[in-house]
From TrEMBL:
Belongs to the carbohydrate kinase PfkB family. It comes from Natronoglomus mannanivorans. Residues 2-294 form the Carbohydrate kinase PfkB domain. InterPro entries: Carb_kinase_PfkB-like (IPR052700), KDG_KDGal_kin_Halo (IPR054871), PfkB_dom (IPR011611), Ribo/fructo_kinase (IPR002139), Ribokinase-like (IPR029056). This is Sugar kinase.
Amino acid sequence: MGDLVTFGETMLRLSPPRHTRLETAGSFDVYPGGAESNAGVAATRLGADAVWISKLPNSPLGRHVVSDLRRCGLDVDVVWADSGRQGTYYLEVAGAPRGTDVVYDRADAAVTTATADELPTETIRDAKLFLTSGITPALSSTLERTVGELLETARDADVRTAFDVNYRSKLWSDTTARETLETYFPLIDVLITPARDARNVLGEAGEPAEVATALADRWGFETVVITCGADGAVAAGDDEVVDRPAFETETVAPIGTGDAFVGGFLARRLDGADLGTALEYGGATAALKRTIPGDVALVNREEVDRVVEGEHATISR
């Protein structure tokens, strides 16, 4: 069983190659994509023993998800459903002024009916850390309950919990999100949130260090991490507040960057690293992800080490 267990939906992403428009695309590149499985892959690639749990349709597309994630190195423990469908989304990539467009097709996905009773909760009880995100409870009222029950399962088993706010305005309003997330907060040890979500969803204004400290004090979180995009990240915990800058990167594929950060950060914390080091590895994993097509960070520990140490890539011959 894994030291890190994650739970959530993984979709199949279909992207037209070479910036083609969706309406004229004759072919698609296909990638697995889901916040929690993305984080699990990143953690695995940095040496963590991670498992993703979920519910998938017993169909060729559901099995495609499992095969892809296993090829990325992530362990998978899923419930197979006889009904429901495999969620997908379409990503049309373009620069300014057109911009990138996302079209979701995830209604009635099998995962939206997942209950705690049918999921492999023993996997959570045997873990060191359980991770989920704010995307998952937004998908259905069933998952809203399930997320709370899984967090309670972890807490009852003395398993630490981590939660990535990861707000999506296409799924629910900021008011509904805040009301729901606050019911989970007493069960969460590590909160990770973008600065914009801390401000717009959680109602915390101020400098990132102030926000991290305020959230930790208000809800009793063990650790709060505020990600600030190009300005790096800040963490409050271990009786200190630390910050680290972002690493320079050439952006090829930004989707999944935040998930890569979460996976890199948690992998190093599970390995016993201090907050500053964990922030560096989260940032380095995120920077590398921006150079990799698809949603997952297909990195290795050696190249993440090089980014942290400030070494530039060379041509391998």
